[in-house]
């Protein structure tokens, strides 16, 4: 076979990977760099703690928004409700995206021994956490606004 007619399989091997018998398989190889847009996360830890951890996180975010609303309302501000709402959203984003990116868990997950990881063991990146938070926020607003 001449060099010109030979196909470079390096890109295929990177995309598909090789089995021990030499055949190609779809999926990543262990030595490939992590895909920054991948977001197939698994909860690592006791399954019974998933719902309580979620409730702890949601209640803490809501408590911050309510505290800001109450503080502004007690001084007679007409902006109390919108600023309280923005404080709730800001607390949720900061906690579930920024803090979780650096600590690999949220307060609720930490209380119940949970962490989010990709199947290969890597931690979620900022883009993945942002995508998850955005979908959850839009789902929450949709549920609150539809009768």
UniProtKB/TrEMBL annotation:
Which intervals hold domain RDD? 53-141
Which residues span the membrane? Answer: 50-72, 78-99
What keywords were assigned to this record?
A: Membrane, Transmembrane, Transmembrane helix
- Classification via InterPro entries: RDD (IPR010432)
Topology of this chain in the membrane: Multi-pass membrane protein
Tell me any Pfam family this protein matches.
RDD
Where in or outside the cell it occurs: the entry states:
Membrane
Please state what the protein is called. RDD family protein
Provide the species name.
Nocardia lasii
């Amino acid at each position: 076979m001449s060099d010109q007619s030979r196909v470079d399989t390096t890109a295929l091997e990177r995309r598909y990977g090789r089995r021990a018998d030499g055949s190609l398989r779809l999926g990543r190889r262990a030595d490939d760099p992590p895909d920054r847009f991948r977001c197939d996360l698994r909860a690592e830890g006791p399954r019974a703690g998933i719902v309580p951890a979620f409730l702890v996180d949601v209640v803490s975010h809501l408590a911050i928004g309510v505290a800001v609303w109450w503080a502004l309302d007690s001084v007679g501000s007409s902006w109390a409700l919108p600023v309280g709402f923005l404080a709730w959203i800001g607390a949720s984003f900061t906690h579930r995206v920024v803090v979780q990116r650096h600590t690999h868990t949220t307060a609720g997950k930490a209380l119940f021994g949970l962490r989010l990881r990709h199947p290969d063991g890597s931690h979620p990146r900022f883009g993945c956490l942002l995508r998850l938070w955005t979908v959850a926020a839009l789902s929450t607003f949709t549920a609150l606004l539809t009768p």
